[in-house]
């Protein structure tokens, strides 16, 4: 079970801005095993976003080795990276990034369009299954503007799940949501992690959210300053139940 | 990533913004429709000009006896008689580029009806003469081949003759007039043709079977002229060569002999006709080109704006696994779909408006297949050409920046 999904060895990333070189990552090393729920924390400027782009195969490190599910990302071309993103990674963004005026079902189907091994019928079935997994089976035909923020984010999670990726990569996925909805999303994430054994890497700056994960990696100035397993995992379901009922606004 | 998926993606993307897709299409629609309608009007006018020029006899060919030398002095044309009915029959049988042929035996004289008389010219011709001159009858019937065989004393009279012999407005049909004391029954009246381009009154004429005129008036076996019409203007030159060859044979001329006849065409009219139609074609092609380029620029413009507006969408698509080529193809297919759909609508609209122009403005129009095919091909080409640059721009976006684009 404990297969290495991510393996980072001394990852460095430098940007050249005019005459100056900015070192966003100065040697990051850690591994993520299958079935882990890792939060990556850090204040702004800590290199969080750069690390996320690297993990998401949107960017390549200047130095160091990044292995994703046994594939060395460093030597891949643009098109190979795209293929890797399609097959191995499910992105969940802060701002959902759903296509406007497009039904939930079609939004979820989208990644499968870029996977030619999936047939037309399979595509629809998989999308429905993914939407069922996020409890939106009754909203297949709704467009994003007919859905609440939490529901939109759940559609986005379904879209991340549909290609059966090895890892879900969430970027401040609760950043645009209120506390209650955030907890709902986290409860869903926990369920995906615990019940379905999905590996999740969750980038956030809220310590509150980090408490739901199994492990926290803390970044500062482009370096890992703390990497600790979470001894006391909080259940998002219980947290949700403990919220006062009058908390609607 | 197969092409069917790409087409679906592009189709859905267009569906998502129907108004924008339609507005983009509008340029193409108007471009194609105007090209088709313009060319239809042009072709229609060209055809009607052609018909009018033909009615003036632009495809008419005249065969005359040639000049001859008598005692060292060159005599003018028609000074000798060489053309006979055998020539006419040979031409009728052998010349492929001729649609109608008629001999003409011509005589001047005084026409008389009751108390009125008028000096005029009688043309002894065959029934085809009316086809060659594209001459209509206002009343009565034309004479027939039977009348020709029988040397019947029947005639058709021109409007000038009608006015001068029947000034009181009674119908000339069935009346007996006299020409050089020979009685003719009037069986039809000719439509007014007015003056010829040489200032000659074309209506001052009596038409009768050539046999009647030859035997009863002129007492000759020769014709003054043979009239023929080429199957169309462009066949005039071929017909001329054909006639020359045939007549040389029937006249048994040796290779060293000069022609004892001359063949004349309406070269001036023909060149006027072709220069008119060429001018129209050039004009319309220019309009066609301009409107299609404008349509194409419309596509490029909207596609360009669309790429900017959809930067986040592009970023998202890339993050979930779209390659550069997928994005490029998507935008290119969108552009092609817009231009082809717009092209189809434009073709329909163009044909419809050409028909409406004919119905409401009664301008002659002729929708030509080549204009449909050409404008459609050009609009598909502009779709690719003008869609490529924005599509390429989209495909080269950096996914990280595109995702964060506000």
Automatic annotation (TrEMBL), chain A:
Keywords: ATP-binding, Nucleotide-binding, Transport
PROSITE patterns per record: ABC_TRANSPORTER_1, ABC_TRANSPORTER_2
SUPFAM superfamilies: P-loop containing nucleoside triphosphate hydrolases (SSF52540)
UniProt GO cellular component terms: membrane protein complex; plasma membrane
One family name in Pfam for this protein: ABC_tran
Alphabetical list of InterPro entries matching this protein: AAA+_ATPase (IPR003593), ABC_transporter-like_ATP-bd (IPR003439), ABC_transporter-like_CS (IPR017871), ABC_transpr_LolD-like (IPR015854), MacB-like_ATP-bd (IPR017911), P-loop_NTPase (IPR027417)
KW Kinase (keyword) present: no
GO MF assignments: ATP binding; ATP hydrolysis activity; transmembrane transporter activity
Organism domain of life: Bacteria
Domain ABC transporter residue range list: 6-246
Protein family membership: Belongs to the ABC transporter superfamily. Macrolide exporter (TC 3.A.1.122) family.
Name the record gives this protein: ATP-binding cassette domain-containing protein
TrEMBL record, chain B:
Main localization category: membrane
Localization in the cell: Cell membrane
Matching InterPro entries: ABC3_permease_C (IPR003838), MacB_PCD (IPR025857), Macrolide_Exporter_MacB (IPR050250)
Annotated ranges, domain MacB-like periplasmic core: 22-245
Family: Belongs to the ABC-4 integral membrane protein family.
Keyword Zinc-finger: no
Assigned GO CC terms: plasma membrane
Keywords linked to the UniProt accession: Cell membrane, Membrane, Transmembrane, Transmembrane helix
One protein family per Pfam: FtsX
Membrane association type: Multi-pass membrane protein
Lineage: Bacteria, Pseudomonadati, Bacteroidota, Chitinophagia, Chitinophagales
Entry protein name: FtsX-like permease family protein
